[in-house]
Structures are given as C-alpha cells and as structure tokens.
C-alpha cells in the first residue's frame, strides 16, 4: 500500500519537527492524496488542549458510499506510531485511524448532513509529546480543506493559555537572559576598545557589530517566543527575528573568514581567493535564511518542507566548511614566512594562535551543529530547553575566546627576546612543520 513509504517519511519528519514551535496554524490543503499528513508536534502537560477548526472540506470522489471513518485527524506519540506501523505490517489494521494506539480527534463520518466544516476541542490529560496527524485511507481520493489548529496548555490557577510546548515554555526567559549577557559583553568590549584605542583595528569594530547584532537577535527571539507563548502569534516579531538572524549569520561567518585570513592583524587586504570565500559564504547565508523562514512558517505538512530542511542543512554545512579554508591558508603562510624572515618567536606565537583558533572553530561548529542536534533528539520533551541553553553557551564561549585571543594589543608583544628564546622558538617551529591539519 502507498501508506508504507509515507509512514516511514513521517517518522523521519518527526525527528526534525522538534525544532518547530507550535502556535496557531492556518493551513490550506489542496487536492492532496497523501495517506498521512503530519502537522505540528506539541508537548502537552496534564492540562493540554487542541482546538481544531476545519472548513471548506472537499473530496475528489463524491460517492455517498465512501467509508468516511477512514478519513480524519488523530494525535500520536512517536512510540505509539511505531506500534501502529507494526499493526499495519502484521495486517491487524489497514488504517491508522483504526489503531488503539492513536488518540482519535475527529472522523469525517461525524460530519452532519452535507456539512463541509467542523469545530472541535480535544482535551489531552496525559502528559507527553504528540503530533497532530491527518489520515486519508481512501484510495485515489484527494482532499481539500482549510485547517486551523491551536495546541496549548492551561497554565496556573487562572488557566492561562500557554502556546509553547512543554519543555520550551521557559525559552523567552532564556533568550532574554542571554540577550542581557551579550549587551553586557558589548559594553565590556567598548570599554576595552577605549582603553586600547591606539591599537584598535577595524576588525575590532567589526567584532563589536557582531556582538550587538547577536544581542538584538536574541532580544527579538525572546519577544517572538513571548508573544507566541501568550497569544499563539508572533505579532511581527518573527520578521525582526529573521532580519537580525540573517544579518548576524552573515556577519559571524564573515568575521571568522576575516580573522582566519589575518585581515588587520597580518595584512590590511584580502587576496582574491579569500574574497571568493566571502562571495560564496554570503549568498549561501541568504539561501539558508530563506530556507529557515520556509521551514518555520510552513511546517511538516508542506510537500516541500523536507526539501527545504535538507537545503538548510546542506548550505549550513558548506558554509561551515568554507570558513575553515582561510585559517588553513594563514597557517600555511605563517609556516613559510617562518623559514625566511628570521622572526621565529613572533611567527611561533602567531602560528600557535591560528592553530588554536582553527581547533576552536571546528569544536564550535561540531558542537552547535551535531551535539546540540543530538541533544534535541535524545532529550525528553520536558527538557528540550536544555539544547537551546547548550547551544547558546557554546556560542558565548566562542565569542569570548575570539575576543580574548584577538583583543587590541601592540603589534609585537615580543620586543625583548634573547637569543636563547629565539633559538628555542626556531626549534619548535621545526616541529610545527610536521603538523598536518
């Protein structure tokens, strides 16, 4: 049956959809014959609610003898879905709606008369993470409809609606705290630049701009999630978040490239190959930002949602790899210079610095792209906020390391170097030549 590949793809989707924040969704389904259409995933507490409003329902086959019990909506956990797959595979059922492992929300057989719409409120008192799913087990029947879904938990004694999934409900505070940390960091950096204003390069001002953009981006994200938490809608804060997220992403990758090339530290210009890296990274960041907007604003029910998810991951990986090349080139140039200019101690210092930065960039990329994703996958839905905290802590550590290692200093801190130190550095450089990245 056609349901098997769709079931498998649904499982894959469910692994990614944890990145999505549930809110009030307005979805248009047009002439869709997929047997399984996943909507948003949401972590319910013991006071969970699902409001489902479906209108303009139309089937491509108007035969009155159709079994409408095979079309409808249900809620399902990931573990329960595995059991549903086993039931279908063993032949116990031929439609997911018939499984006792799913929680039926509405079957189309409940439509009264010739009605083409319905409204229902489903109470979920079992705390767990559920996905709202539409099932159409009628062969060769296409469905069109407008779906408005709202999932929330009733919070506190006054039963306020909380539209953020359990485990993500504290994210507005988390983002706001990190925004304050970055604003504080920007203030400290401004103070450092003022104290050492005689040795400030343009790259240091660029670092300041990156910190401020990161702080503003986190502030917009805090407001975005705060409005979603209270009202189910971002009220325009999502637009500001996307704008500053794009600017922050472009500036951060550009900063890594500029530091990696030694711009302002080793040389006041960029070579053609280094400019080409920037010409690759910046357009890719535009594509990544567009993909992120599509992923967040559509959801897994879209036909092309998974394609955009894969595009985003691919582009992100390419950007992360591209920014490593300038650092490698700088290390190579420093090694070659060490053999000719006779400044062994200074070159060893610079070479050690760029090697450290290369390793830290790799660790930062690996942690924020792999480890954080692994935390999202394996962590209980109640503690999904921990993956956000881990990612932001890693980013903060990377910013602090970069600022500390490349802070304004005199051009050459090794003005007074005796012969023994110079000879020791020269011997160390010979060992460094054997190191391969």
UniProtKB/TrEMBL annotation:
Q: What are the TM regions of this chain, as residue ranges?
A: 174-194, 201-219, 239-265, 307-329, 357-376, 382-401
Domain CAND6/7 N-terminal positions: 28-153
Q: Which GO terms describe its cellular component?
A: Golgi apparatus; membrane
User: One Pfam annotation, family name?
Assistant: GOST_TM
Main location per the UniProt record: membrane
Q: Which InterPro entries match?
A: CAND6-7_N (IPR054103), GOST_TM (IPR053937), GPR107/GPR108-like (IPR009637)
Signal peptide (UniProt feature, chain positions): 1-22
The entry's localization annotation reads: Membrane
Print the keywords alphabetically.
Answer: Membrane, Signal, Transmembrane, Transmembrane helix
Q: Which residues form the GOST seven transmembrane domain?
A: 172-412
The answer on whether this UniProt entry bears the keyword Disulfide bond reads no
**tRNA processing: is it a keyword of this entry?**
no
User: Which topology term describes how it sits in the membrane?
Assistant: Multi-pass membrane protein
Q: What is the protein name stated in its UniProt record?
A: Intimal thickness related receptor IRP domain-containing protein
């Amino acid at each position: 049956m056609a349901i098997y590949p769709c079931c498998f793809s649904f499982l894959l989707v469910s692994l990614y959809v944890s990145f999505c924040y549930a809110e009030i969704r307005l979805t248009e389904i047009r002439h869709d014959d997929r047997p399984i259409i996943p909507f948003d995933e949401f972590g319910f507490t013991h006071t969970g609610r699902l409001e489902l409003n479906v209108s303009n329902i139309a089937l491509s086959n108007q035969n009155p003898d159709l079994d409408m019990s095979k079309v409808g909506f249900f809620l399902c956990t990931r573990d329960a879905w595995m059991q549903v797959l086993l039931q279908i595979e063993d032949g116990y059922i031929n439609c997911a709606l018939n499984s006792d492992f799913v929680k039926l929300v509405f079957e189309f057989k409940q439509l009264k008369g010739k009605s083409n719409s319905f409204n229902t409120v489903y109470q979920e008192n079992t705390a767990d993470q559920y996905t709202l799913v539409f099932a159409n087990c009628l062969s060769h029947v296409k469905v069109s409809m407008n779906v408005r879904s709202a999932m929330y938990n009733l919070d506190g004694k006054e039963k306020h609606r909380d539209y953020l999934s359990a485990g993500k409900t504290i994210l507005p505070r988390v983002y706001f705290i990190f925004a304050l940390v970055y604003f504080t960091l920007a203030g400290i950096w401004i103070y450092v630049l003022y104290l050492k204003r005689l040795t400030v390069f343009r790259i240091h001002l660029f670092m300041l701009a990156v910190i401020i953009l990161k702080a503003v981006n986190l502030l917009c994200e805090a407001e975005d999630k705060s409005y979603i938490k209270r009202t189910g809608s971002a009220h325009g804060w999502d637009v500001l978040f996307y704008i500053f997220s794009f600017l922050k992403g472009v500036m951060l990758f550009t900063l890594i490239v500029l530091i990696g090339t030694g711009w302002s530290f080793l040389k006041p210009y960029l070579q053609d190959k280094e400019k080409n890296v920037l010409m690759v990274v910046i357009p890719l960041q535009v594509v990544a930002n567009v993909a992120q907007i599509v992923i967040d604003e559509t959801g897994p029910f879209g036909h092309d949602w998974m394609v955009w998810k894969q595009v985003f991951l691919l582009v992100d990986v390419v950007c992360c790899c591209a920014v490593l090349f300038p650092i490698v080139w700088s290390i190579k140039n420093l090694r070659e210079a060490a053999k000719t200019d006779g400044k062994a101690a200074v070159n060893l210092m610079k070479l050690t610095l760029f090697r450290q930065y290369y390793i830290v960039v790799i660790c930062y990329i690996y942690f924020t792209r792999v480890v954080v994703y692994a935390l999202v996958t394996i962590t209980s839905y109640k503690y999904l906020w921990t993956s956000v905290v881990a990612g932001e802590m890693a980013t903060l550590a990377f910013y602090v390391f970069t600022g500390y290692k490349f802070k304004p200093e005199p051009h050459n801190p090794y003005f007074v170097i005796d012969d023994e130190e110079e000879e020791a550095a020269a011997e160390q450089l010979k060992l460094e030549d054997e190191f391969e990245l």
